[in-house]
Write a structure and sequence with these properties.
There is one protein chain. This protein is of the alpha+beta class. Helix content is 25%, strand content 30%. It folds into two domains: 4-77, 2-Layer Sandwich (Gyrase A, domain 2), CATH 3.30.1360.40; 85-239, Cyclophilin (Beta Barrel), CATH 2.40.100. The strands form four sheets. The protein has a five-stranded mixed β-sheet with strand order 7-6-13-5-14. The protein starts with a strand and ends with a strand. This is Allophanate hydrolase. Residues 3-203 form the Carboxyltransferase domain.
Length: 240
């Protein structure tokens, strides 16, 4: 593996590990991010993990780019030897009727029943690769191969918040209303982005996510509880 160090202006550097979406590359990106945070590397202001790279924002009055690059090279030579504790979320999703406008079409395209699509999606533990597009939007993989589909040919101009979607090898949840070209197969009543919290985005890169099917009545009950700030999304630490 050849790691590249790319300048992103005079206050940022990109450490690029590869050219594809791959769990091995994601693990390397997240491992470097952990090491930088653990050592509190001088001058580093912020870290932004992506599918295949780590964007490092730094203060040039505290550290020069060349100096930071040498520090990063040293960190890359070390390896994580201890198991890592990560957060695993259980997200309620209604895959019924109005909440899943593309589910029937997805099933037909994949040669499956709608029940099989739901089961495949709900039985998968997803890995949060990165947050992007809009605030709190999680790019999660990897979909079972039966559900790998191209984006819609006619994107929507408005996708409701909470929509659970799939495209390519990814699944995602729209945190806010926005345009979107992914297939909508369900909806969750929880908030994925809340500006009132110190960390507004619910998920972060490296988290694990499982989707729990609920019916429309349970969806409504949870939505009412969320609106009243009386619902907490289930989360536990797991070792990987």
């Amino acid at each position: 593996m050849t790691v590249q160090f790319l300048s992103a202006g005079d206050t940022a550097m990109v450490v690029q590990f590869g050219e594809v979406i791959d769990r091995v590359l994601s693990d390397q990106v997240l491992a470097l991010s952990r090491r930088i945070r653990a050592l509190n590397v001088p001058g580093v202001v912020d870290l932004v993990p992506t599918f295949r790279s780590l964007l490092i924002n730094y203060d040039p009055t505290q550290v020069r780019g060349a100096q930071l690059q040498e520090t990063l090279k040293d960190l890359l030579e070390s390896e994580d030897t201890e198991p890592q504790a990560v957060r695993q979320w259980s997200v309620p999703v209604c895959y019924d009727g109005e909440y899943a406008p593309d589910l029937q079409e997805v099933a037909q395209t994949a040669g499956l029943t709608t029940e099989q699509v739901v089961q495949l999606h709900a039985d998968t533990q997803f890995h949060v690769y990165m947050i992007g597009f809009v605030p709190g939007y999680p790019y999660m993989g990897d979909l079972p191969k039966q559900l790998v589909l191209p984006r819609r040919s006619n994107p929507r101009t408005r996708v409701p918040p909470g929509s659970v979607a799939i495209a390519s090898s990814m699944t995602a949840v729209y945190p806010i209303e926005s345009p979107g070209g992914w297939h909508l197969i369900g909806a969750t009543p929880i908030r994925l982005f809340d500006i009132r919290h110190e960390a507004p985005a619910l998920f972060k890169p490296g988290d694990k996510v499982r989707f729990k099917p609920v019916d429309s009545n349970e969806y409504q009950r949870i939505r009412d509880a969320v609106a009243a700030d009386e619902y907490e999304v289930k989360c536990e630490e797991v070792t990987v």
